[in-house]
Structure prediction request, 236 residues.
Amino acid sequence: MAVPFPVFASATTATTSHQSLSLSVYPRSFPRTNFNVVSSSSSRPSIRVNSAASPSVEAATAVDSDRAAASDSRSKALPFRIGHGFDLHRLEPGYPLIIGGINIPHDRGCEAHSDGDVLLHCVVDAILGALGLPDIGQIFPDSDPKWKGAPSSVFIKEAVRLMHDAGYEIGNLDATLILQRPKLSPHKEAIRANLSDLLGADPSVVNLKAKTHEKVDSLGENRSIAAHTVVLLMRR
Prediction:
C-alpha cells in the first residue's frame, strides 16, 4: 500500500554484526511501524517487522539454497536481460584480420587459438553474460584442439542457440571496435550485415562503431585490437 507520508530513518543500535535500523511512518494518527535489521546465527541478516497496532505480527526472512534456486528460476523468466562483452587480441604479422566474419585487408592480424575474430568473441561473451552463463573461454577453451583455427561463426551460432533455448531473442546490440589501423569505414556495413545475419536479427537493431586509441598503448600503436559489446535480450 502506498503511504503518502514522509518516512524517516534513524540508526538506533549498532552491534558487531549488523546495524539496527528503525523506520517510522507519520503522522502519529497512523499506526507506528518499525522495521529492524536483526542479527542471526547465520552470516546474513534477517528482517523483523514489529507493529504497535499488532505486536504479535512478526516475519523473518532468511536466504537459503531453496530460495536461491527459486530466485534463479524467476530470473530465467525476466522479460529482458542485459549483457556486456569485452575481448582483446594481439596483432601480429602473418595472420588474417577477421572482424565480424569479414576478412579485412591489413599487414597483420589477430594471434589467437581460433580465427581471432575479436568482434564475434565479444558478442558471444555479451550474450552468454546476459544469460548468466560461463564466458566463451570456458565453453570453448583454447586448450581443446578442436577449436584450433575454428571460425568464430561456430561460437556465435552456439550462443544464439543457447539464447533461443532460454526463450530470448536480440532486442538490440551495440558494439564498439577499438583499433588504430586500418580504417574500418569502408567495411562497417559489410561487418554489420554479416553480424546481423549470424544473429538472426534485423540490421536495424545491430549497431557498430569504431574508434582509434589516439596512438596510446598497444591499441594505439597497432599492436592490438579490442571490442566492447552491450546486448539487450528480449523474451520471445
